[in-house]
Amino acid sequence: MSMVNAFNLATAGELPAADRVLLDRRNRALGPAYRLFYRRPLHIVRGEGVWLFDAEGRRYLDAYNNVASLGHGRPEVVEAICTQARVLNTHTRYLHEAVVDYAEALLGTMPEGLRPGRANLMLTCTGSEANDLALRIAAAATGGTGVIVTRIAYHGVTAAVAACSPSLGQDNPLGPDVVTVAAPASGGDVGARFAAGVRQALALMRDRGVRPAALMVDTIFSSDGVFADPPGFLQAAAEEVRKAGGLVIADEVQAGFARTGSAMWGFRRHGLTPDLVTLGKPMGNGHPVAGVVARAEAAEAFGGRVRYFNTFGGNPVSVAAAAAVLRVIRNEGLQANAARVGGRLREGLAQVAARRGGVLDVRGDGLFLGMELEGVGETPARARAALAVDAMREAGVLISATGPRGNVLKIRPPLVLDEPQADLLIAAVDAALSLEADSASPPSVVG
Ligand SMILES: Cc1ncc(COP(=O)(O)O)c(C=O)c1O
User: Fold this and answer.
1) Mean per-residue pLDDT for 344-354?
2) ∠405-134-251 over CA atoms, to 5°?
3) What is the CB < 6 Å shell around ligand 1?
């Protein structure tokens, strides 16, 4: 799956001389696997709150960042990191209060069946590692190897999780025991359709003599095109996989930590208690900390037999950053803010859609929204999305696009977004969608 808004030197046009030099050095040093965003790449040098600043001092509203979800350079997190780094940074093979305090606090945000005493937290450095570990735990707990994922899923970069990530495209082979199902897209009885897909995948595994280990889903279906409705649509599929002896892995790397507004965790919208929950991205507001919550029996099936040590996972500095994130989310009521401001944003985008036309759907939950475009005139839907994303970048607002056809605008601002900033974002989408394919970029909306 090629990135909708990937930079392409051939079509970039004129670039500032300094950026051109840096681009050449970057290509030589980092090689061909990396992609840059936008027709004209951004050279970002600083971030503060919801804003990013480029090398010329121009500011951009960051509406695409679910990592720095408390805002860029968040003082409480920076302070926590610095304070702990001055005292001690080591690993989980010594007794230390901080990692235990954090595990208790994090498990305290989970539903009853995953609370302290009934579940454990294991710490990693990235979401990929968390998913990789979750797969190992699922395999140990079930004796199975089969994994069901959605058709455009992305779960990370290790060999095991890249093999569960069809969104990486046809040149990235899936694992022999990985079966894909259609994502729970809007319309009709979403839950029944998704469960039927999972049932079919399980039947295929049975025919191949593969025992199921897990159904692994990103609970906001970010790369599949952003799907949140109706609440509860995951339940029937979860029952199917459990009946067949598999576990449910909720990948909360995208949806977790209050992003969806209606709950702290995306899976809660669906009235589900997963067996394994994987965490990452916003967990440290940019500091690399991630982890797996595992039902105690599953954790025992793995950890009772195989030791787990992660040199950096769970170090006191990372844990200090993660603890600060949890505190700020709670103290500032950021889940409620995501619900309130996200609601306003969604309503504003729906009004833009009604006024401009050419929009199939506005959907999502809290501050994770998708706006699905259709083709208009000669311009296909994917090209319209790419144009809108680039036009917004030129106007000073950063978003991206997703979905199997690349035609869903993906909007994911920091949880601290306020109402005026939401209005600015709505105005930017409005202006971008009013552009004809060949017209000039819109004027800046951020000043
Ligand atoms: C749903 C999901 N899972 C896992 C990952 C992998 O996380 P990381 O990049 O921290 O390894 C990502 C990253 O984009 C993701 O979106």
Assistant:
1) 98
2) 35
3) 126-128, 131, 154-157, 218, 222, 251, 253-254, 280, 290
